[in-house]
């Protein structure tokens, strides 16, 4: 789920980080003006550092970044569409969630994308944000309070006091949208939670589900594809058992020969992560979100796996779709292209990955395993015990399984209202979310040919009918919520 930057950009990021520069300095590519793109203004909000303790930070504040555009807004009347930013640079989400601005144009809304604390430029303690104890103010509750305080303060400033607020989010951002509606129904009239795995991340799932569903995507393209992937990992396993490290280096174009089981584990993690990303980002057109992906990456990957080449080289080239999208990677550097963390689906690289690792070590539970039985990957267990061991060493914290479920209702959501849970059937996160409508105002939408929050993306000629239909339902439902809220507040 975590944001990732790949290939050349990844190396640059890493370079920037090791040089003590935030990776954001090289993400300029996304900011090129384009007349089709919404005209966001970048602003900062003076935000309370610690919403829940009046002594620890006193009245201390930090600068929280947000993007805003009123180009579609019926001033003082139209609703506010507020994106609850998740684990990354807020521009990345703003520029990959075109549905929200298309809908804003339609419903004459003011649009705000708020950055999550500890990500992008919203670092409460600058370069020291990831020290202990400074990192301790990174919690879901603080992030939600940030959004609530920001909305409350901006409304009168913008002359929007009467305007209903609808929150939007994808993935962890979708979880935050759900939580906003549960926690602050006084502020938020409804939530569109796209691909929000609110159940699995609260420990209410099957630890095998995620990689099983990744596998399912490749297997439903071609069962032979799954077999080829499994066979390639088996070959790698055979070579590592006889410690033929030079063959492994040659086959995978590794910069340095592996020399231990730890290196092999790292290689397996890096390779598995490529499949995770291809499954999550299996969009019908090429994208530049979380790295560069060709159109239909699962198909592209399987076509390489089945090209008849040597299985190990096929596996390398398939991973290259993710890590070598620029085509300029000379060799795979095991420890810089992929960093193992408390999220077995990947934390990405750079500062944002530190923040996500901390969240995965505290409130967000991501104990997913692969086992080569229910999935095609080598056995890589990641249990609550592994997590605890890693997290206490890395961050000096002991995770609290069950807290998210206690705090945000688990699956006992029936007394909530006005939430859409949309999920794409291709998305390995989908089955960690709410898949069945719980009431007439808690609506689940399945997008049969959709990957990770495809519905939040701009309309595209290659869109399957299922996402067009889903967006239509979402648009109608949101417009109803806005009307309801106007009636209620009269
Ligand atoms: C916090 O409050 C104290 C006492 O009123 C004041 O002197 C100080 O400037 C305030 N700090 C901030 C960051 O607002
Ligand atoms: C995966 O399971 C298959 C049997 O389905 C077995 O032949 C193979 O050795 C296993 N591979 C690994 C890497 O454990
Ligand atoms: C990266 O892609 C280029 C172009 O396809 C290829 O020549 C190069 O060998 C690839 N690098 C690796 C490490 O596979
Ligand atoms: C969505 O798909 C899931 C899994 O296939 C199914 O259990 C569920 O009933 C479907 N939900 C809707 C709203 O169609």
From TrEMBL:
Subcellular locations according to the entry: Cytoplasmic vesicle; Lysosome; Secreted
Residues of the signal peptide: 1-20
Top EC class, one word: hydrolase
A GO cellular-component term linked to this record: lysosome
Keywords: Cytoplasmic vesicle, Glycoprotein, Hydrolase, Lysosome, Protease, Secreted, Serine protease, Signal, Zymogen
Cross-referenced Pfam families: Peptidase_S28
Domain of life: Eukaryota
InterPro entries: AB_hydrolase_fold, Peptidase_S28, Ser_carbopepase_S28_SKS
Catalyzed chemical reaction(s): Release of an N-terminal dipeptide, Xaa-Yaa-|-, preferentially when Yaa is Ala or Pro. Substrates are oligopeptides, preferentially tripeptides
GO function term, MF aspect, one: serine-type exopeptidase activity
Principal subcellular localisation of the protein: cytoplasm
A GO BP entry: proteolysis
Keyword Repressor: no
Record text on subunit structure and interactions: Homodimer.
Family indicated by similarity: Belongs to the peptidase S28 family.
UniProt protein name: Dipeptidyl peptidase 2
Gene name tied to this protein: DPP2
